[in-house]
Hints:
The complex is a heterodimer. Chain A has one domain (2-238). Helices cover 76% and strands 0% of the residues of chain A. Chain A is built from ten helices and no strands. Chain B has one domain (5-255). The chains are: A mainly alpha, B mainly alpha.
Amino acid sequence: MLNLIYCELLKLKKSYIMLLIIIGGVFSTILMNLAVLVVSSEKQRSFESYASNVEQLNFVIFYTILFSLISAYVFSREFADKTSSIVYTYPMSKIKIFIGKLITICILISLVYLVEFVSIYLGYYILYHEHPEFTFVSNHIKFYLYSLFFQFLIIPIPILIGNLSRNIMLPVVYGAVGIVISGVHDSFVFGEYLPFSIPFNFIKKIYEPNLIDLNYSVISGICCFVISMFICMYHYNKHDIA
Amino acid sequence: MFGGTLMFNIIYSEFAKLKKSYILIIVFISGCLLPGIYFSDAITNDFSNLSQVEIQHCIKNQMINVEALSFQFLFIIVFSLVIGYVFTREFTDKTANILYTYPSSRIKIFIGKFITVGILIMITYLIQFFISYLVVYIEFRVLPPAEFIIKDIKVNIYSVLLQLILIPIPVLIANITKNIIIPIVYGALGGIIGLGVMTILMSGSIYGQICPLVLPALPFYHYHRGDPIDYIAVVGSAVITFGISMFLCIYHSKNSDVN
């Protein structure tokens, strides 16, 4: 299993994925710093307001697309580069290959979270030469871990779309559709159960502990994982190789 | 026009290449997405006890929301995806060798692809325009007044033309990286910047107009919200963006290696 993950990570070496992870972590912080320095009228911000703005940009808009892009790339590159016939000559079952790729995606996503977390603290320190107190930081880390875990739970949906279409485009469109829908989700009947905004709900819980009800997110995250994972496994086991 | 029938053949062959891909589905989905979302919102509400004036107000609100979100946020992502696909599929499918055996110059092939993308963009705008009026008619059984529709047609036409100015940027990125990933990331980052600039524009400041990524949304702000337009900044940023990126595109596509 370790070999499988190592070999997946090696395949990413020559691609732009590593660049994407750094851009994905750092871009919003740089944008925010520029906005504070150039445009904004209020020069002094609390850490809560700074971090929640950066996280809103990242989690609501950017990461929905970025993570579907990453997961679609890891799975569909075998079809695009015509290497899927080589993958299935490994002495492993298809399920193991699938889980290896899934763990690779999880590692990449955790890297993005890590880079973003560090960049927020660095960005705030560069602007104001201060940092928040330790109790807040530990709370922040705790909710980041929850959010990361639920990000893992909703990742099988873009994987399924990528595997069905054997293409990187439809998962990206899924991400874009997800952003737009989660932007207006209050109007839907089951809007609270939509999977797109689950990871951000956990982040919002830090800043507005009384307003956010996480029960919907937990239920829908677990349902999403069970259903889409089942379909993913079934499809990955049964489908034709090339 | 550009070399008579040969140019037409290039564009036709580009469209034939798109037939088996998901691009046409994506164009259709992105045209229907926002009107569809507002439609699903509206059918859960009850409009029977509203007066005619309130209904007209609802309709205008819905049309304006659809256009603001799509011009400033959704379309930049979708169009960079389309552009990335049209320009990089030759490299990923290893058909670049075949492409350059066509009896036409590289510049012509480039312009052919460019026009193909332009046509796809116009199709997206057309779909969104008609679907949004169809949706309004199904919801309320009434259309907005004629002067609003004429204004809306103007907004859409200007917006398409300004959208064409932004095409060369993702084309250049796609041609340099020979990969569909980076143009998509450009689109996502452009969406973030677009939303950021939208908050600046909505607060009444006109400094946001300098940003070229906001160009397709400016007709919307001018006609529907009555914001003044700083023509020098807008024309300047449009000309500079199009000039520089188009020059780099043509230079790169002329001098780059085939594979």
